[in-house]
Amino acid sequence: MKKLFFVLLMFPAILCGQVLTVGDVVTLTMRGAPAAQKEIDGDYTVDDEGRIRLPMLDDSIPAAGLTPAGLARRSEAAYRRSGIYANPAIEVVAKKDIQQVGAIITVGGNVKRNGQVPWRKGMTIIQAIDAAGGRDEFGGRNVTLLRRGKQYPLDFHRLDHLNIPVLADDSVRVEAKAVFDRWRGDDASVAPVLKP
Prior knowledge:
Largest sheet: 5 strands, mixed
Radius of gyration: 20 Å
CATH class of the largest domain: Alpha Beta
Helix content: 25-40%
Structural class: alpha+beta
Shape: elongated
Number of domains: 2
Number of strands: 10
CATH topology of the largest domain: wza like fold
CATH superfamily of the largest domain: wza like domain
């Protein structure tokens, strides 16, 4: 019953697009504490696990699924709990649906146009490949997503892999067809980037 109530409570925020998701950028501002403002004020990105890491806190804060106001309250509570600030006043503004100026992804390998592609919020693996002209005649089923120094082997034949959102500064590489063109990854290696 509590879960149903929560879903109904969040429904208007979801419809308005106000709920934070992976890859969203938020601007966090601390009010009333000039010294703290220099430490805390800034832009933060919701990471692949739906969390945000804030200065001086040992643990990251869950952010995905919250409204900006909900993230502000959760941030305030985290600073109070840690004993860093007794009564913090935090404001969070989402930069939702705004394309980051100059944000790009790189698409390479066996695509028709290798190179940089402008990134936009909500862009998926298949949209990134299509923006590079699609796979060329040698493009195989193996696709590699490079994100923050890690590689994720994706399967072009799986819809759930093609719908993985790309983040600004990601790289996508379409590998060449092999004699026996089979996927060289496994579900566990892709799990961190699949949407829940």
